[in-house]
Every structure is written in C-alpha cells, then in structure tokens.
Amino acid sequence: DIVQIKALAQAITNMSTNLTGTPYDTQMIMWQITDNGTARSIAWGASFASTSGAALPTTTAVSTMLRVITQYNSVTGKHECVYVD
After folding, report:
1. What secondary structure letter does DSSP report for 62?
2. Are 44 and 85 a contacting pair, CB within 8 Å?
3. Computed from CA positions of residues 62, 44, 30, 6, in that sequence, does the dihedral angle turn out positive or negative?
4. Among 8, 35, 48, 52, which one is least packed by beta carbons within 10 Å?
5. CA distance 75 to 85
6. Cβ atoms within 10 Å of 36's Cβ, excluding its own
7. Is 76 exposed, middle or buried, given 0-12, 13-18 or 19+ CB atoms closer than 10 A?
C-alpha cells in the first residue's frame, strides 16, 4: 500500500488523527510525503512508533520526496517504522 501526500502546505500535527481502515499484522505501507517548497514538521501520533532500525522523521526536506515504510505490529497495535529515505 502507498499513501501519497503532495504539496504539503502545513505541518502534520498528528498523523494518527482520523486514520481509518483495519490494518493486518505485518501489513506494510509506504508513506510518500512531499512539501510545497517549505519544510514541514510531522507529528506521527500514538498509532506509530520508531524502531531500533529506523526513526520516524519529524520534518520534510524542502521539495524532496520523503519515503517512510511502516509495518503494522498487531502485538503493539502500532505502525512501526522500518525504513526512511
């Protein structure tokens, strides 16, 4: 699954707010986030977690696509970050 956020014009204050759907164990999602030429902050919220291998990014890089891959862990109930580019 891929989620694309293009021309982000404001900070994401909580990525977990209004998150819909029912994830399944081990489900992977690639989040592709590109700002509108100004770096924007990202607050992931309670539904997400960093791992020892990859930390959730807290900001975009100006006009550069940010790729974050998460994998759902049904034990923790969180989308855990496994890769950031």
Report:
1. T
2. no
3. negative
4. 52
5. 26
6. 13
7. exposed
For 14-47, give the DSSP string. Answer: -TTTT--S---TT-EEEEEEEESSS--BB---TT
Reported as a single tens digit per residue, the pLDDT across 41-73 is 999 999 999 999 999 999 999 999 999 999 999
pLDDT, tens digit (0-9, with 9 covering 90-100), for 18-46:
999 999 999 999 999 999 999 999 999 99
- Sign of the four-CA dihedral 18, 28, 33, 39: positive
- For residue 80, the tally of other CB atoms under 10 A from its CB is 17
